[in-house]
Amino acid sequence: MSLALACLAGSVPLEAHQTPRTITLTVADPVGDKMSYSVKQIVAKPGEKLKIRMVSMAQTPKIVMAHNFVLLKAGTDVKAFSDAAANARATDYIPPAFTSAIIAHTAMAGPGESMDVTFTAPTKPGKYVFLCSFAGHWAAGMTGDFIVR
Ligand SMILES: [Cu+2]
């Protein structure tokens, strides 16, 4: 979906039309109280086309344990986003008030599921935040840095 939008915009760099580089994130059931992505840092070139694949290795039913990948625009209040997401179960934990703060996100992956999103990295170098927006997961440590350089 974001690819179609990016191409329609007509102002994306040439590499946006090339084959995306795939990055796979996995998450197992939490060990102790620690919940985290298998990849804590993603480094992308400005305007690079990426495919993020979110794979849940969890065993717990999806209703209580699902994971996504949400990349936020620079300057977003991550705690405010996460708090709003916790109350947004009806929209798959994507808070309607914050949709304009999201660069890209996958759907929620339940046990054994895999969800993809293809998008173009920001063209502005800097550090962005990605996180899981399932209730409580960001606070538990399910977050990472998305570096554009
Ligand atoms: Cu999660």
Q: What does it look like?
A:
By secondary structure, this protein is mainly beta. The protein is built from two helices and eight strands, in the order αββββαββββ. It is 11% helix and 30% strand. The model is unreliable at 1-7 (pLDDT under 50). The structure holds copper (II) ion. Copper (II) ion is lined by residues 67, 132, 134, 137, 142.
Question: What's the topology here?
Answer:
Layout: H1 2-9, E1 21-27, E2 41-44, E3 49-56, E4 70-72, H2 78-86, E5 102-105, E6 114-120, E7 126-131, E8 143-148
The structure holds copper (II) ion (CU).
Task: Produce a short descriptive summary.
The protein has 149 residues and is mainly beta. 11% of the residues lie in helices and 30% in strands. It has one domain (2-148): Immunoglobulin-like (Sandwich).
Task: List the defining traits of the structure above.
8 strands, three-stranded mixed beta sheet, mainly beta
Number of H/I helices? 2
Assign the CATH class.
Answer: Mainly Beta
- Average pLDDT confidence is 90
CATH architecture heading: Sandwich
Poorly predicted sequence stretches spanning 5 or more consecutive residues: 1-7
Shape assignment: globular
CATH homology superfamily name: Cupredoxins -  blue copper proteins
Strand runs, count: 8
Ligands in the structure? copper (II) ion
In N-to-C order, the SSE pattern is HEEEEHEEEE
Radius of gyration: 15 Å
Strand order of the largest sheet: 2-8-7-4-5
CA-CA gap between termini: 25 Å
Count of the separate structural domains: 1
* CATH topology value: Immunoglobulin-like
Strand content: 25-35%
Sheet with the most strands? 5 strands, mixed
Derived from helix and strand composition plus strand pairing, the structural class reads: mainly beta
